[in-house]
Write a structure and sequence with these properties.
Chain B: This is Cytosolic Fe-S cluster assembly factor NUBP1. Chain B: It is found in: Cytoplasm; Nucleus. Chain B: Its cofactor is [4Fe-4S] cluster. Chain B: InterPro entries: Mrp-like_CS, Mrp/NBP35_ATP-bd, NUBP1/Nbp35, P-loop_NTPase, YlxH/NBP35. Chain B: Heterotetramer of 2 NUBP1 and 2 NUBP2 chains. Interacts with KIFC1. Two copies of one chain form a homodimer. Chain A is of the alpha/beta class. Chain A has a domain of 193 residues: 3-Layer(aba) Sandwich (Rossmann fold). Helices cover 39% and strands 18% of the residues of chain A. The first copy, chain A, has eleven helices and twelve strands. In chain A, the strands form three sheets. In chain A, strands 5-6-2-7-1-8-9-12 form an eight-stranded mixed sheet, with helices on both faces. Chain A has a two-stranded antiparallel sheet with strand order 3-4. In chain A, strand 10 and strand 11 form a beta hairpin. In chain A, helix 2 packs across helix 5 and helix 5 runs parallel beside helix 6. The radius of gyration of chain A is 19 Å and the shape is globular. The relative contact order of chain A is 0.16. Chains A and B meet through helix 1, helix 5, helix 6, helix 7 and helix 9 of A and helix 1, helix 5, helix 6, helix 7 and helix 9 of B.
């Protein structure tokens, strides 16, 4: 019964059910076939997390021998279906769980977007219900043998992030890639996200700075549209001793490709932005190669 | 409509507040205590508290990073330029509170008095409240789940002593979740003029904006209109216009035509905006003749007309 203080029986029951050792172990078992798990985070919205997640998936999957999975846990604003050109696709259930939607034989995607009747349907859920969905995504999706599972997150440091980290606490997570743009208003939120990672003992693979400069296609003048008034990600990374994985310039092709659901790496392969992305993807692969999963690795205490 | 948890037993049921699905619902304790039939008393308290506030405007977007806080800050600046207009700016983005930095108020602290919390005053006629003022350091992460965030929002609305205010602007985080539901629920007895919805031109943003518009309809929140930020970039050297975030489906203009919602204005990309925000200054003062500043002024006028 709801008392004046402390946990009621039903509080305890829900907490235990939601984050029980059993659930966490089930998820650990389910994800045993997944070699590397990468979270894509940012304190700030609109800096390019989903764009980056989508293109990290595309880039890795260009090698048809690499099995890639992309999980979108942004429940309110799931951008991944559109960016991957998979709008309107539906999720199927089988004996072994939910099947992801396959863009290629080696690239499977899951998002709440696939569960909506229409892309304009608003998912207006409070925290506990979002947590339930994330649990299902991690426990009930049949990913199969996967080399890289990329988890795209919404902005912030709230339910979705806590739940993802808690549910994954027994499964080895390689680390987080943190996305930012150059201005201090973004970096401020990124420092909070880094603080979050430290608190939950999530390793940080590095930081990506998006929207670094814009090069005028006509006169080639470089403009800093989001000025790095405090030195941008470069200074932040030096201060906090975190790797800067790369800087990506603004490029209208990126937005166009995302809206069309295509890979920008294919649409504009020689652009500075595509080359920047490829460099970043390579660094992430190197990081994962150096940090192989151990048998009984536990992330959080 | 998912403002109650799935499996909600109903506020009048014997299981009210006691079911597993009640966890996290802001009314859980109320239901469990047996007073489930009555609405949260905070709603009436907030209605009383905000009686001295003439106009209330929510600034929303489904999408992050489109310029909600930038717009909220400059709407506040613009309105407060008339020293006879009392303006209040409330930042309910608990995880990523940008307003203190944008208003040049970092490091300020909130004071308590007999009549409640005092907002931080930038000018005599411009008061600001944000969770940012409650942190020891701006880099402190607020890692709270929904219920705790809801509690903070209730306090902001019920316990802040705004005084006589002409415009209360409420800046929100991206999405359609706890903060938005709570703000609307707690304000449900106080008259809210409406919502301004911010977007950028590309379809990935518009998609989330349509969800936000859907949210507004569901909670019966009037929509004042849509603002399209980051419309074009004009090269300062050769004046070529580039659409950095291409409106592949017609941008906000087409969306507003389709959904019969006013388009309040389009704001071009301008490096001065980011610079002013980082420095905590008003871009309307820093670059008053720029196309972006003129666009903002037009929008402010349309919003409050």
């Amino acid at each position: 019964m709801g008392g004046a203080g402390g946990l009621s029986d039903s509080d305890r029951q829900w907490s235990e059910e939601a984050f029980s050792r059993r659930t966490i172990e089930e998820i650990k078992e389910k994800l045993k076939t997944v070699k590397h798990k990468i979270l894509v985070l940012s304190g700030k919205g609109g800096v390019g997390k989903s764009t980056f997640s989508a293109h990290l998936a595309h880039g890795l999957a260009e090698d048809e021998n690499t099995q890639v999975a992309l999980l979108d846990i942004d429940i309110c604003g799931p951008s991944i279906p559109k960016m991957m050109g998979l709008e309107g696709e539906q999720v199927h259930q089988s004996g072994s769980g939910w099947s992801p939607v396959f863009l290629e034989d080696n690239l499977g995607v899951m998002s709440v977007g696939f569960l909506l009747s229409s892309p304009d349907d608003a998912v207006i859920w409070r925290g506990p219900k979002k947590n339930g969905m994330i649990k299902q995504f991690l426990r009930d999706v049949d990913w199969g043998e996967v080399d890289y599972l990329i988890v795209d997150t919404p902005p912030g440091t709230s339910d979705e992030h806590l739940s993802a980290v808690q549910y994954l606490s027994a499964a080895h997570v390689d680390g987080a890639v943190i996305i930012t743009t150059p201005q201090e208003v973004s970096l401020q939120d990124v420092r909070k996200e880094i603080s979050f990672c430290h608190k939950v003992k999530l390793p940080i693979i590095g930081v990506v700075e998006n929207m670094s400069v814009f090069v005028c296609p006509k006169c080639k003048k470089e403009s800093q549209i989001f000025p790095p008034t405090t030195g941008g990600a470069e200074v932040l990374c030096q201060d906090l001793k975190i790797p800067l994985l790369g800087k990506v310039p603004l490029d209208p092709h990126i937005g166009k490709s995302c809206d069309k659901g295509q890979s920008f790496l294919i649409d504009a392969p020689d652009s500075p932005a595509a080359l920047a992305y490829r460099g970043i993807i390579q660094k992430i692969q190197e990081f994962c190669g150096l940090h192989q999963p151990k048998e009984e690795h536990l992330i959080s205490s």
